[in-house]
Write a structure and sequence with these properties.
The protein is an alpha+beta fold. The protein has 1 helix and 4 strands. Bound molecules: zinc ion.
């Protein structure tokens, strides 16, 4: 049997709980960021009129805006 004091047990228990919560929080943030990236992967924002539209084709770097008809270069969508 391992001899230990009550204060050591409390400290070990707190460390285990905090470690578990940190791991859970990290996994949640990582999942949320991955979901957000997957959601905005095909979105394109028109630099001329500001229209946000979906374009599933990833091959073209320049797409035509459905609202104004101008050619738009792909950029990452920033959520403010
Ligand atoms: Zn446009």
């Amino acid at each position: 049997m391992i001899r230990t004091s009550l204060s050591n047990l409390i400290v070990l228990n707190l460390a285990a709980v905090l470690g578990g919560l940190t791991v859970l929080w990290t996994v949640r943030v990582w999942r949320e960021r991955r979901r957000e990236r997957a959601r905005t992967r095909h979105q394109v924002v028109c630099a001329v009129c500001g229209q946000v539209f979906e374009d599933p084709a990833r091959a073209d770097t320049v797409v035509t805006c459905p609202a104004c008809g101008r050619l738009v270069e792909r950029q990452a969508v920033l959520d403010l």
